[in-house]
Amino acid sequence: MNDYIQRYIYDVTKRLDEKQREDISKELEANIYDMLGENQSDENIKQVLTELGSPAKMAMNYKEPRYLISPELFDDYKHVLVIVVSVFVGIAFALGIIDAVTSSGIEILEGVLETLFGSILSAGFNGFAITTLIFAGIELYRKKVNPPFKVESLPKIPKVESKKNLRVEMIIESVFAIVFGYIFIHVLLTNFVDINAVWDDVTFVYAGSVLNMWVPNLFVPWFIAYLVMTVIIKVFQFKEGGFTKPLAIFYTLLELSSLVLMSIIMTRSNTFNPLFIENVSTTFGIDFAYHINIAVKGILSFIWIFLTIELIVTWYKIYHPKKGLPKQKN
Questions:
Q1: What is the C-alpha to C-alpha distance for residues 152 and 66, in angstroms, rounded to an integer?
Q2: Contact criterion met (CB below 8 Å) for 219 and 268
Q3: Rounded distance, CA 277 to CA 216, Å?
Q4: Nearest-angstrom CA–CA distance, 249 and 263
């Protein structure tokens, strides 16, 4: 019956790394005989081996846990995965709507269903795959380097009552910024309209650009950089548990400089294509340049008021945190 002991030890050690087998074989054999004691009868050997469990399960006790993403990183992985997949799906949704509406020769509803379903599934899978690969690479790096714990790496105490609520807010804001930012960039790059419409027996026909080409050439690179920096701010805002003073300063400078640049670009006399302005003015008998200038200034004024209120609220929250919550020092 001792043959069962050797066979059990063999079945365990064959599942282990060759360097471990000899030491673990001796250790396991000693443990089995300790459990048997003086009673080494056939029945007792069977009972002891049965209590130890299957060799496959026993071998797992001698192996280091193998994870694609370890429990230590899994919470961060879930949080980032939600953000990335949401952004990818949001972009795919925007692309699908644009493609479905602008495509010719198909029904709008059919185009929406056909385009959205495939693109959203593909985008969700791509977001999942990219996030998983990145975290798997981080996990592999951590195993090789095994960096020591540092007290400085401890996260700051959040200034908000619920970090979960902040995470949801950051996700929603990031998704909206990227989705509508993409639509805005797409419109600027396209910069073409084909209008053939009738209003009260007045026919308006125009095919061409709305803006002069220097506008998208200047605006698009800046706007892409603005979107990237906005998302980075959101990531740090979540990491810090809210706005810190340095982060708020960077955010304020980014928003103000961006709005100043936008105001300068949109109020220049050569922003809009003169052929478009002339066509509208001639067709409807109005000074379209004057009206569009008033409209642009009105929109910019509203944006300036909205941004001013938002910045005031942001800085008020920094200097007047909610009661019962620690105020972060910088």
A1: 28
A2: no
A3: 18
A4: 21
Residue 209 confidence (pLDDT) above 50 = yes
SS3 readout for 93-106? HHHHHHHHHHCCCC
pLDDT at 322 > cutoff 70: no
Q: CA–CA separation, 151 vs 142, rounded Å? A: 18
With beta carbons less than 8 A apart as the criterion, state whether 46 and 4 touch. Answer: yes
Determine which of 8-17, 34-43, 140-149, 267-276 has the lowest per-residue pLDDT on average: 140-149
Rounded-to-integer distance, Cα 65 and Cα 63, Å: 6
Question: CB under 8 Å to 166, separation ≥6 — which residues?
Answer: 158, 160, 237, 238, 241, 242
- How far is 29 from 6, CA to CA, in rounded Å? 8
Average pLDDT over residues 151-163: 55
**Does pLDDT of 55 surpass 60?**
yes
98, 186 in Cβ contact below 8 A?
yes
Q: If you ran DSSP here, which 8-state letter would residue 1 be given?
A: -
Taking only the tens place, the pLDDT of each residue in 66-101 is: 667 777 778 778 877 877 777 777 767 766 655 555
Helix (H) or strand (E) holding 123: helix 108-145
The mean of the pLDDT values for the chain is 78
Sorted by where each begins, the domain ranges of the chain are: 2-60, 65-154, 192-330
- Write down the pLDDT at residue 321: 65
